[in-house]
User: What shape does this take?
Amino acid sequence: MTNEKHVLSILVDNQPGVLSRISGLFSGRGYNIESLCVAETTDPNISRLTVVTKANQPLVEQIKKQLNKLINIIKVHELTGSKYVHRELALIKVNAKTENRAEILRIVDIFRGKIVDVGPDHYTIEVTGDEGKMEAILTLLRPIGIKEIARTGTIALFRDSK
Assistant: This one.
């Protein structure tokens, strides 16, 4: 059984300690969290956690069962294998020497990113997309010189059925 990435969307009560119990479940059983994003939904009493983990299918089923036993868990959905929309957000601070500025602007334009901050020796770029797009822009920017990166990890929602 191979380990593949699985995306879980978990609706929880928006209360202190819920995230700690979920991350404790993962770490206590030796499961790794590849990425984790949490925010309120349209209902301020409910938060959505998007968790990406690498595991085989039987292990993911076990994780879902254990999550459903936790207090404050409303619903656990596995998005992997379904139709869903997913994105990451990255803020990338790059060296912006005079000789590289035009190249950086071309790369940002190709990836439909935005320059969100400019300094005397840097640009901060905002880009959204899937993991492949993130890796592609980072590959192009590395030779120029990446100073810092902040990435959200995956966020995801089911696609509406037509």
Q: What stands out?
A: The mean pLDDT is 94. The chain has two domains: 4-82, 85-158. The longest strand covers residues 84-95. The chain is about 30% helix and 40% strand.
